[in-house]
Design goal:
This protein is of the alpha+beta class. The chain has three domains: about 5-65, Beta Barrel (OB fold (Dihydrolipoamide Acetyltransferase, E2P)), CATH 2.40.50.140; about 65-140, Orthogonal Bundle (DNA polymerase, domain 1); about 150-190, Orthogonal Bundle (Helicase, Ruva Protein, domain 3). It has helices at about 30-35, 65-75, 85-90, 95-105, 105-110, 120-135, 150-160, 165-170, 180-190, and strands at about 5-15, 15-20, 25-30, 45-55, 55-65. Strand 1 (about 5-15) and strand 2 (about 15-20) form a beta hairpin.
């Protein structure tokens, strides 16, 4: 398997790039966000890769960093999400934004990915939320913790509503980064209502 390609950037378009290595041009499909982060034509670049092999195709997918590649590899394990849809997801969202949406169970945000309907978005959230919340695909994926004062205020509010401390703790797990106490409370109530 080809792990990365390092060479001269020959061309770019909305589907990917061509990188020349020792006189050979490799076509690499990449997200629009990653393409925008590469250098200018003629500059030296290094792109991490994933080789997708099918009966009728051999495609190299490229990534700026390991975080993006790991998320791509997770996405393509979901039924109904192929490499093109996974690349669309990474063109629409930065990895941390997509992880945040999945962990927060924001189906509407995930559904904004081109080619993803409501059922596929629900499947992505259902199958990946716990894995991503636990940081199981690498330390870069561990969600940032919300402010402890806000968490404490939201916990107190849940306890005053009759929920147990264990229920409150579970409901607040994986809460979005930087959320204030009222946002945390809404997040927890939504999870408790499911």
């Amino acid at each position: 398997m080809i792990s990365f390609i390092k060479g001269s950037l020959v061309s770019t378009n909305e589907e990917g790039v061509v990188i020349e290595v020792n006189g050979i041009g490799y076509r690499v499909s990449m997200s629009l966000i990653s393409i925008s982060k590469l250098g200018t034509i003629g500059s030296q670049v290094q792109v991490l890769t994933y080789m997708y092999v099918r009966e009728d195709a051999l495609v190299l997918y490229g990534f700026i960093d390991e975080e993006e590649r790991a998320l791509f590899e997770r996405l393509i394990t979901i039924s109904g999400v192929g490499p093109k849809v996974a690349l669309s997801a990474l063109s629409r969202f930065e990895p941390q934004q997509l992880i945040g949406a999945i962990v927060a169970q924001d189906v509407a945000a995930v559904q904004k990915i081109p080619g993803v309907g409501k059922k596929t978005a629900q499947r992505i959230v259902l199958e990946l939320k716990d894995v991503l919340a636990q940081g199981a695909i690498g330390p870069l994926f561990a969600p940032a913790e919300p402010d402890t004062q806000s968490v404490s205020a939201a916990t107190d509010a849940l306890l005053s509503m009759g929920f147990t401390s264990a229920e409150a703790e579970l409901a607040l797990k994986g809460a979005p980064e930087g959320a204030n106490d009222s946002e945390l409370l809404r997040y927890a109530l939504k999870r408790l209502g499911e």
